[in-house]
Design goal:
The complex is a heterodimer of chains A (about 325) and B (about 130). By secondary structure, chain A is mainly α. In chain A, about 60% of the residues lie in helices and about 0% in strands. In chain A, about 40% of the residues are buried. The chains are: A mainly alpha (about 325), B alpha+beta (about 130).
C-alpha cells in the first residue's frame, strides 16, 4: 500500500548517496564501517526483493486496511496536527510490538531473521529487508490504527517515515549522540545492540524511532564500551546465498513440522521462541542468556574461592 | 505489475550492481589471517563459550578448524571476512567423507547445510589412526 507521498521512494536516492559516502569515508579511514562485497550484495538484493514481494501482497494489505477504516470508530482528519502527533506515537508503539513479536516467536522470526543475517553492520544492512513479511501477516498489527480512524494513507506515510528514520541508525560511523537524544530516540548505538549476538545484547532494543518503549517495557540495554557488538545471528549463515538468507528459517520450520509427534510440538516449533525444541536440545535466547549469566557469576565467584580473605572483604 | 515498476526494478538492479562493484573496489574488508591452533581456539572460545575444545585440527588452507569437545565436534570456517560456527556429533564428523580433497560434513541445518574443509593430503583427518 503506497500513499501518493511515499517517504521511502523519496529517500531512496539519499540511501544510495549515504551508502557511497560511508564506503568512501571507510576507504579513506575517516569512518568505521566494514563493507564486504558479497555481504553488501545480499543486503541490497534483499532490499530489492523486498520491494517486489511487497508489491505482490500490497493489494491484500490495502484491501484489509481499507476495510478496517470503513468500520472505523472515529473520524480522524488527516489535516489535523494532533492526528499526526497521535499517529507518530501509536505507529511507533505498534512497531515496537511488531518488532518484539518478530524476534520472540519463530513464525515471525522466520520472516525477520534475514535482516539480522549479516555479520556486518553498515547502512547497506538497513536495506536487508524481508521478502516474506506479507505472508507472515505482521501487517495485521497496524489494522487497529485504521479501526481507530486513521486514514490508510496516513498510516502508510507514518510507516514510511519510520522506515526512513531507521535507515541512518544502521551505522558504526556514529558512536554516540548527546545524552538527551540517546535517552529518547533510537540511535546507532542502541540499534547496534539490537543487531548484536552477544548474549547480553540478545533480544534487546526493539524500538523504531523512540527508545522510550524499550525503557518502558524492560527491553532496553545500553551499548557498553567494554563489550563490543558481534553482529549477526546466533547461528550465522554458511554462505552468501540470497535465497538462503530469505528462506532458511522457513525451511527449518518445515523440516521440524515434518518430524512432530504431537500438536504441542507443532505449536512449539511454529510459535515458540526461536531455538525452541521439545527436548531442549536447541538453545533459545533465554537459555543462552541464562548460561551466560551463570558463566558470569562463576567468573565473579572464582577470585573469592581462590582468596577467601578477599571474599570476606567483599561480603 | 506496471512498466514503470519494471523500469524502477531494473534501474534498482543496475544501481545494486554498481554499488557492489564499488564496494569490491574499495577493498575495505580484509580476510582474517590463516588460522593456527591458537587463533582457532580463540574463535572457538567466542562461539562455544561453554565448551572445552581439544587441540583443533586446522584445514590445510587455514580457513577452518575442527575441535573435539566431549561427544561434539566444534567447527568453524571462514566466510568473507568473518567466521561461521557449527557443532555436530563427533561421530558424524569423524565419519564424514573427503570429497575433492575437502572434508565434507553434511548438517541438518538450512542455514549451513554443508561444511567443506580442505585437507592437506586428501585423507580424512579423523579417519582410522588419525588423532582425534
Amino acid at each position: 500500500m503506497k500513499a501518493a507521498f511515499d517517504p521511502v521512494t523519496l529517500a531512496t536516492p539519499f540511501f544510495i548517496v549515504a551508502i557511497v559516502l560511508e564506503i568512501v569515508l571507510a576507504r579513506l579511514g575517516r569512518a568505521r564501517a566494514a563493507y564486504e562485497a558479497k555481504d553488501t550484495a545480499v543486503s541490497l538484493l534483499m532490499g530489492l526483493g523486498s520491494t517486489v514481494a511487497g508489491v505482490l501482497t500490497a493489494g491484500a494489505v490495502f484491501a484489509a486496511t481499507l476495510w478496517a477504516h470503513q468500520h472505523r470508530l472515529f473520524d480522524i482528519p488527516m489535516t489535523a496536527a494532533w492526528a499526526w502527533v497521535a499517529i507518530f506515537f501509536l505507529e511507533d508503539l505498534t512497531y515496537y510490538w511488531f518488532h518484539r513479536l518478530s524476534h520472540e516467536r519463530r513464525f515471525w522470526w522466520a520472516s525477520h531473521v534475514n535482516h539480522h543475517s549479516s555479520q556486518h553492520y553498515n547502512l547497506s544492512t538497513a536495506l536487508r529487508q524481508t521478502w516474506t513479511g506479507g505472508v507472515a501477516g505482521t501487517w495485521l498489527l497496524w489494522l487497529p490504527l485504521a479501526f481507530l480512524g486513521f486514514p490508510p494513507a496516513m498510516i502508510a506515510i507514518e510507516k514510511g517515515i519510520s522506515l526512513v528514520y531507521q535507515f541512518w541508525i544502521h551505522t558504526e560511523t556514529i558512536r554516540r549522540l548527546p545524552a538527551p537524544i540517546e535517552a529518547v530516540f533510537n540511535t546507532p548505538s542502541h540499534h547496534r545492540v539490537h543487531h548484536a549476538r552477544n548474549p547480553r545484547y540478545l533480544d534487546k532494543n526493539y524500538a523504531g524511532i523512540l527508545i522510550i518503549w524499550d525503557r518502558l517495557f524492560g527491553t532496553f540495554e545500553p551499548e557498553r564500551d567494554d563489550e563490543p557488538c558481534r553482529y549477526g545471528i546466533v547461528k550465522n549463515l554458511g554462505d552468501f546465498n540470497v535465497l538462503r538468507a530469505a528462506f532458511h528459517e522457513w525451511i527449518g520450520i518445515g523440516a521440524d513440522l515434518l518430524r512432530v509427534r504431537s500438536p504441542r510440538e507443532a505449536l512449539g516449533y511454529l510459535f515458540g521462541p526461536p531455538g525452541w525444541s521439545p527436548d531442549g536440545s536447541r538453545q533459545t535466547s533465554a537459555m543462552i542468556k541464562a548460561r551466560w549469566r551463570a558463566r558470569m557469576q562463576e567468573k565473579a565467584a572464582k577470585p573469592a574461592e581462590a582468596d577467601p580473605a578477599a571474599a570476606s572483604e567483599t561480603v | 505489475m506496471s512498466w514503470a515498476f519494471l523500469l524502477q526494478t531494473l534501474a534498482s538492479a543496475a544501481a545494486i550492481a554498481i554499488l557492489v562493484g564499488f564496494t569490491a573496489w574499495a577493498r575495505i574488508s580484509r580476510a582474517p589471517p590463516k588460522l593456527d591452533a591458537a587463533g582457532a581456539l580463540r574463535v572457538l572460545a567466542d562461539e562455544f563459550p561453554d565448551a572445552s575444545p581439544a587441540t583443533p585440527w586446522i584445514a590445510a588452507d587455514g580457513a577452518g578448524a575442527v575441535a573435539r569437545s566431549g561427544d561434539e565436534a566444534l567447527m568453524i570456517f571462514r566466510l568473507g571476512d568473518g567466521f561461521v560456527a557449527r557443532a555436530a556429533p563427533w561421530a558424524r564428523v569423524a565419519a564424514s567423507p573427503v570429497v575433492a580433497g575437502r572434508l565434507t560434513v553434511r548438517l541438518d541445518d538450512p542455514g549451513a547445510p554443508r561444511i567443506r574443509l580442505l585437507t592437506g593430503d586428501g585423507a580424512s583427518p579423523f579417519g582410522e589412526g588419525a588423532a582425534s
